[in-house]
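Saturday, quiet lab. Running sequence design on the structure tokens for the scaffold JK sent over.
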């Protein structure tokens, strides 16, 4: 029997459009099954200061029943390299392919193509396109504002140096941020006939939500060219909550109809606390909440599949006596699959 490429869908498989199974290997290769796993295949960094950190993530998700294997990822330009988070993907698993631009290279326009080569379930290549323009007259040191780990509720402030070589009247007019939890300001530190220097200070608010920060603040300058007048500076860090829960998201994988599966969530804190409740809007999920106070709690999560195959997703809410009415939220996903014909229970005869 030849390998068949099958797509799991929550609605009604994919039969009404192109058949339940893409039977022949040749037909599966012709169809754009590989490219459909990527959330996007092109990214333009725009203008980048020399020395600034420039990374972008392409996410791919295996939407198929068969396992997917990334054999290689190669770059057509030495200006850009790639990192792959994982190369073997089961159903609904994701991989992140990070494009890294070498901003220390010669300034100017940079165009790179990353070729992702798959060898399972079928040989296929997908091209990811990366574009950027590196300014040689603006340098940021270090290449990004790095907050590191910041305890939630404390806030933080970090500095990078910005230097410009060129016009004597060049200025940074203001700092803009699309993230309301980040703000920036600049202080001019030196000005000479051919060089201007600034300190860029970026502040993180104390009430910033927990999670990763991967943003840009934008230096708005008085450049004559409107496109190059805006220079992004990367900002990175993580706001660490007082309580953490893992794994998040909770991936339950494939579950056969009428089967039950149990996985554990681990909730941790720095001081003893109580879990006062756990819930999900989907009634297929049940929880066993511990009654005592501890710094670490194990919460069993049981999912029982019903008779409807398909992808199910939801949000688990965990309430404690430490998070002031705000729940710890954990995304959960599970794929319910039908019974194999040989595994179906035998029907009893007439009474």
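Result came back. Writing it out in full:
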């Amino acid at each position: 029997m030849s390998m068949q490429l099958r797509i799991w869908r929550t609605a009604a498989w994919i039969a009404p459009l192109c058949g339940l199974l893409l039977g022949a290997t040749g037909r599966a290769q012709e169809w754009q099954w590989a490219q459909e796993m990527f959330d996007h295949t092109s990214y333009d960094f725009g203008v980048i200061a020399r020395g600034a950190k420039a990374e972008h993530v392409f996410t791919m998700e295996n939407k198929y029943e068969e396992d997917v294997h990334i054999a290689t990822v190669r770059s057509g330009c030495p200006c850009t390299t790639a990192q792959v988070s994982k190369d073997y993907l089961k159903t609904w698993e994701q991989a992140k392919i990070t494009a890294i631009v070498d901003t220390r290279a010669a300034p100017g326009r940079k165009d790179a193509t990353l070729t992702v080569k798959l060898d399972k379930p079928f040989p296929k290549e997908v091209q990811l396109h990366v574009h950027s323009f590196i300014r040689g007259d603006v340098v940021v040191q270090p290449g990004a504002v790095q907050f590191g780990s910041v305890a939630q509720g404390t806030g933080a402030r970090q500095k990078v140096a910005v230097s410009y070589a060129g016009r004597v009247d060049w200025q940074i007019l203001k700092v803009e941020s699309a993230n309301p939890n980040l703000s920036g300001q600049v202080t001019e530190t030196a000005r000479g006939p051919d060089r201007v220097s600034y300190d860029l200070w970026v502040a993180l608010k104390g009430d910033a939500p927990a999670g990763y920060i991967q943003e840009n603040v934008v230096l708005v300058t008085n450049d004559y060219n409107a496109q190059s007048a805006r220079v992004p500076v990367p900002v990175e860090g993580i706001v660490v909550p007082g309580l953490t829960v893992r794994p998040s998201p909770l991936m339950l994988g494939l579950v056969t109809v009428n089967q039950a599966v149990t996985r554990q969530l681990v909730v941790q804190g720095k001081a003893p606390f109580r879990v006062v409740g756990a819930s999900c809007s989907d009634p297929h999920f049940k929880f066993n909440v511990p009654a005592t106070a501890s710094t670490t709690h194990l919460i069993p999560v049981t999912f029982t599949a019903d008779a409807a195959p398909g992808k199910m997703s939801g949000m688990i809410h965990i309430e404690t006596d430490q998070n002031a009415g705000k729940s710890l939220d954990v995304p959960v996903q599970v794929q319910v699959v039908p019974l194999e014909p040989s595994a179906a229970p035998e029907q009893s005869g007439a009474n």
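Notes for JK: The chain is about 5% helix and 55% strand. The longest helix spans residues 25-30. Ask whether to fix the surface positions before the next round.
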